Amino acid sequence: MTSFSVKFSATSLPNSNRFSKLHATPPQTVAVPSSGAAEIAAERLEPRVEQKDGYWVLKEKFRQGINPAEKAKIEKEPMKLFTENGIEDLAKISLEEMEKSKLTKEDIDIRLKWLGLFHRRKHHYGRFMMRLKLPNGVTTSAQTRYLASVIRKYGKDGCGDVTTRQNWQIRGVVLPDVPEILKGLDEVGLTSLQSGMDNVRNPVGNPLAGIDPHEIVDTRPYTNLLSQYVTANFLGNVDVTNLPRKWNVCVIGSHDLYEHPHINDLAYMPATKDGRFGFNLLVGGFFSPKRCAEAIPLDAWVPADDVVPVCKAILEAYRDLGTRGNRQKTRMMWLIDELGVEGFRAEVVKRMPQQKLERESAEDLVQKQWERREYLGVHPQKQEGYSFVGLHIPVGRVQADDMDELARLADEYGSGELRLTVEQNIIIPNIENSKIDALLNEPLLKKRFSPDPPILMRNLVACTGNQFCGQAIIETKARSMKITEEVQRLVSVTQPVRMHWTGCPNTCGQVQVADIGFMGCLTRKEGKTVEATDVFLGGRIGSDSHLGEVYKKSVPCEDLVPIIVDLLVNKFGAVPREREETEE
After folding, report:
1. DSSP letter assigned to residue 452
2. 521 an active-site residue?
3. What DSSP state is assigned to residue 203?
4. Across the 584 residues of the chain, what is the mean pLDDT of every consecutive 10-residue run?
5. Which residues pair with 162 in a beta bridge?
6. Does 245 qualify as catalytic in the annotation?
7. Which of 113, 245, 319, 324 is catalytic?
């Protein structure tokens, strides 16, 4: 496998002297020539953070009206739980003792998210979800077995989920075990560092990178570089751990746009310029309860060698200038709106190594009329004599035994590698064609993870739901499966239809990109409060991407089946089963 490596020195850690002092700019105005903003006061361009004792903190003058998460960061630096090994001491304190102190209570509910640990206070008190960093969704059999060994010890509380960012989340973790788990992750080449809260999330790339006969570029070297930069090779990069909000990045490697560039804060779009390979940049895509926005062009192109420098410049502009008040208005697009695209671009240029950033290239390498390919099932690789097999993982949920079996199959039939996808499925690459039939006859593929699932199941996505997540309003995973099975009995569908479920307006299930989306809510029916969903319609992915809009609000979950059937018949060409049988 091709991979790049970046060496980070000890200067990536706190107490470094490499940070330059930041000075307020004298009052003046700066003209911004586009995007609706005529002028930006120079004092608005003063960085709101400064370096103290090796960490970036919000300046005193900008602390009025900040949100509770910002207050928690100021009260105690979250990264010290890792960089100064605070997790070792915290893991020795009982939960009962932690509850007596505001500081330690915030440690387990807020600051541990910088280590990828999410306390499930509402539904599984004392249990944690652990989110990993898995650039490009590529993992090994050894890593998969280790994760299986972690969740197995937690019995019914332990399981794993494939996420919508090509990542693993494992559940059931208890705090006393965390120091040992972190050591085990490091030994197999994994980390959970900086995977939650106001950090850069898992870099997404083409799940078929390096094996796709039609790929534009192998995204793995770039997603690896980005992940190595963000975490400083697992040491912790405190330059980018105090962002105003979370931040998503992807590198596009195929015409299929499996990576969903339009919903990322930064998307690298392959393009050539004057015979040089590089990337045009899209910025600002995001979902939130109050607003969803598609990424827009920054009017910038970078050569391949500048993938990390431009990421660093954009992150630093966002870190320095983003607002930290209402959490619903702190994603990067709000800053772009305020400064205008040109104003934001100018701030990025200031932070580039040579203070230069080329304008966008017209030589976009992504074919606009490309029909998105199916990756489930058996498909030939670019390597002659080899194929990959895409497996359907129902709503992304796996148990320890499943993970062990997947690892065994990867070793026995492939090269010991697994690929996770944003649709919560798994690909086994590098299988000799002579072994394909034997793999397809494996019990796991026959009974659990089919390479050829029913058409409505194959694109079904669901977030964690209220089984584990305290923010989810409704149960999603089991319900989405049950309702889809009911719908399948009523209609025959001949074209792919992507249905996504999310348990709350945070939309981790990305309902706005689905053909039909379901966002959890509550409503009243016959005088009782019942679980319901807002139904979204019309989301598209690919080169003609478009975010879906609300079709019906507050539909009780028990009333969804006939509505879905009606949509499938009238919008997606489905045929009622009874009519299909009559015509036969």
Report:
1. S
2. no
3. P
4. 38 32 35 50 95 97 97 97 96 94 96 96 90 98 98 96 96 97 98 98 98 97 98 97 98 96 97 98 88 93 98 98 96 97 98 97 94 95 98 96 98 98 97 98 97 94 82 89 95 92 85 90 93 90 77 94 96 83 47
5. 168
6. yes
7. 245
